[in-house]
Amino acid sequence: MDGHALHPSRVIEVEDSILASTYSKIPIVAVKGRGARIWDIDGREYVDCMGGYGVALVGHCHPKVVEAIRMQAEKLIVCHGSIYNDARAEFIEKLISIAPKGLDKVFLSNSGAEAVEAALKIARKYTGRKAFISMMGGYHGKTMGALSVTWREDYRHPFEPLIGEVRFTPYGDIDRLRSLATGDVAAVIVEPVQGESGVKIPPDDYLKEVRELCDEKGILLILDEIQCGLCRTGKMWASQHWGVTPDILCVAKGLASGIPIGATIAPRDIMDKLSVGEHTSTFGGNPIACAAGSATIDILISEKLAERAWEVGSLFKRMLEDRLSKYRVVREVRGLGLMIAFDLRLPVKDVVLGAAANGLLILYSGRTTVRLLPPLVIGREEVERAVSILEKLIAIEDEKLKSRIHPS
Ligand SMILES: Cc1ncc(COP(=O)(O)O)c(C=O)c1O
User: Fold this and answer.
1) Which of 9, 116, 250, 257 gives 65 a disulfide partner, CB atoms 3.0 to 4.6 angstroms apart?
2) What span, in angstroms and rounded, lies between the C-alpha atoms of 333 and 355?
3) Claim to verify: residue 200 and residue 84 sit in the same structural domain
4) Do 263 and 116 form a contact (C-beta atoms < 8 A)?
């Protein structure tokens, strides 16, 4: 408690009474993070498989990110896009150097939803067409445009009318997509691996077929790699697993290790359709975010975090399969690199809260799916600790399931 202004119970009370109640909360007051670990206000340690919802790619408070932020904060904290800035120029060169080939211009914003907003506007401007196709189960954010291409009805319905002309198609079904791909479609938007809907991996040929269909029909392909990109799945971009390059790429989350950022990347001829004033953002390209972004990209490369995500992710998934799949309550374990999920035959709320009580932070993906998005620097010992805690909790859920099937 030393050094903290508020008692833990006051922190919770203040947030609960003053913040808009739009988050389902885990009752922990986090005050410190390092690598793949978090500490709460009472000094209790947690293995962090939530990772700030997939943001802490290079680990919490990586010393090189902290140093880059500190140095930039001493030099210049704000620089509007109408003035040039050294940190911004350095960052966008690095970003383009890791972007898929041919995507050589970028619009900078402050979040995933904003990266998607920009992509939708660019697609309309470039094609002169109005409609979009999105995937059932897809998640692209909650601002009005991004929400329009987000699948879940309960997110969209209360806020309609959204942007019209969005058609949803089953993820993985190329024939249905083909039947919707008429001449008025500006873009198809896809997550190469669906995150919010529980780490859904497409059939092997699907993304290639989507790419071919878009080429054939003059439709732009927007890939949303906000959650699955930046080494998370074992490659810089998840779409590289299937050899697919988008027309527009959306990136955000861990790009600046937790400093708000969004990036929409496209080839020059597409991006140049936006004219002066048509799309701007006060904070987009902020020097602190750019300095943190440069440090993050350097670390992803120098610490070989794609390879590491693949190795540790494969180990993590195998251990979960070995130790959880024997319980009937577990339907399936799946994952790609360090983007992992498992489905239960019961709601996962008690597992999520029980994990926190036992020193492990994990995520919901809907009512019956647990998702794990740990920092890519998570170590073997932390993985073992996470699996042991999960096994203990799953055994309890399995007993619950048995007593439902055979009540005494
Ligand atoms: C794939 C994907 N797209 C877009 C978003 C929206 O990002 P943000 O919450 O930063 O607006 C998210 C957030 O979880 C996401 O996972």
Assistant:
1) 257
2) 17
3) yes
4) no
Ligand 1: which of 108, 111, 140, 142 to mutate, most ligand atoms within 8 Å of CB?
140
Tell me the backbone φ, ψ of residue 59, rounded to 5 degrees: 95, 150
Number of domains in the chain: 2
Domain that residue 385 falls in: 8-58+304-405
Q: Which of 144, 193, 197, 227 to mutate to test the pocket of ligand 1 (most atoms within 8 A of CB)?
A: 227
DSSP string, 222-236: EEE-TTTTTTTTSSS
Ligand 1 centroid to 252 CA: how many Å? 8
pLDDT tier for residue 2 given thresholds of 50, 70 and 90: low
Q: Report CA(151)–ligand 1 centroid distance (Å).
A: 13
- Say how far apart CA 102 and CA 90 lie, in whole Å: 19
The predicted model gives 36-62 an average pLDDT of 98
Both tokens of 320, joined, read 């979960």
| Any ligand 1 atom below 6 A from CB of 195 | yes
166-169 sheet: strands from edge to edge: 105-109, 262-266, 248-251, 220-224, 185-190, 131-135, 166-169
The reply to whether 292 falls in a domain is yes
**Does ligand 1 come within 6 angstroms of the Cβ of 224?**
yes
Whether 196 is in the pocket of ligand 1, judged by its Cβ within 6 Å, is yes
The answer on 298 and 153 residing in a single domain is: yes
pLDDT digits (tens, 9 = 90+) for 243-278: 999 999 999 999 999 999 999 999 999 999 999 999
Residue 140 CB less than 6 A away from ligand 1: yes
The reply to whether 88 and 165 lie within a common domain is yes
The confidence score (pLDDT) of residue 8 equals: 83
CATH of the domain at 213: 3.40.640.10
One domain for residues 221 and 311: no
Please indicate whether residue 222, judged by its CB atom, sits closer than 6 Å to ligand 1: no
